[in-house]
Amino acid sequence: MTGSTVLQARGLTRQYGQNSGLVRAVDEVDLDVPAGQTLAIMGPSGCGKSTLLHMLGGLQRPTDGQVWLAGRRIDTMSERAAARLRRDTLGFVFQAFHLMDELTAVENVELAALLAGQSPRRARRRALDLLDRVGLADRATHLPSALSGGQRQRVAIARALSNEPLVVLADEPTGNLDSAATLDVLRLFEELRTTGQTLVVVTHDARITAVADRVISMRDGAFADDSQLVSATAGTVYNGLR
Ligand SMILES: Nc1ncnc2c1ncn2[C@@H]1O[C@H](COP(=O)(O)OP(=O)(O)OP(=O)(O)O)[C@@H](O)[C@H]1O
Ligand SMILES: [Mg+2]
Q: Where in this chain does the record put each ABC transporter domain (predicted)?
């Protein structure tokens, strides 16, 4: 892990509604994610995980506070500039997948790389490799409508990695997976960890902590606990899952 911070938030806050209906979905969160870290943010349903992740990726505006992605302030950027910064630095796995219905699995995965200007050949090769790593080599030419929920989720994970992004933000990436598919995804995350990829995963799946360097517990929009794990221990726990 190197020292530079690739993702940073200060006083990050998002409110919904007003007066008696006011919800502080995310409440003054400070966060520093160093390059190469695998961070798991855990918490119960409704505690603000998706809202936090969307703000970190510049997909949703905070009510208050600041976010820097790759050293650039993303929360005040124009939509267009934020989209460009995301294209160049970020892979996002949505809780609801958001695949393009009219594109096959492999076309969905390679799209981000093509938009960023990679050669079609190289983008296709990487997309097929990623699909293979999430256990979907034989589903590459299927449309999302011909895939199960868990298979779509794995396509969404492969897609987030297609462009070799600086940071991957993943929202509940194993929420629809059985234990075999979860293991495929954990193995992939473990591999990413060893290659120095920065990964932030929000989840209520405790198995994710097996491949994390750091675990933050979230309650009612705020961080309740922040612990650094010893990487060697993470490896051991992970081995226990096989
Ligand atoms: N558009 C909205 N309008 C009003 N309240 C919202 C809106 N979106 C989210 N909330 C509220 O904000 C809180 C945080 O929601 P969020 O989706 O971030 O939770 P989460 O931790 O991702 O939950 P889950 O684990 O179920 O995905 C919840 O109480 C939710 O009801
Ligand atoms: Mg959520």
A: 7-242
Domain span at residue 214 reads 35-52+77-241
Q: Is the shortest distance between the CB of 49 and ligand 1 below 6 Å?
A: yes
Q: What value does the mean pLDDT of the chain take?
A: 91
* Beta strand ranges found along 187-242 (DSSP E): 198-203, 214-219, 222-228
Given the CA of residue 14, which atom of ligand 1 is nearest to it? Answer: 12
- Which residue stretches of the chain have pLDDT < 50? 1-2, 232-242
Tokens at residue 132, please? 């293979």
Please indicate, yes or no, if residue 150 is contained in any of the structural domains.
yes
User: Which of helix, strand or coil describes residue 98?
Assistant: coil
The answer to whether residue 207 is domain-embedded is yes
Q: How many domains does the chain have?
A: 1
- How far is the centre of ligand 2, averaged over its atoms, from the C-alpha of 178 (Å)? 19
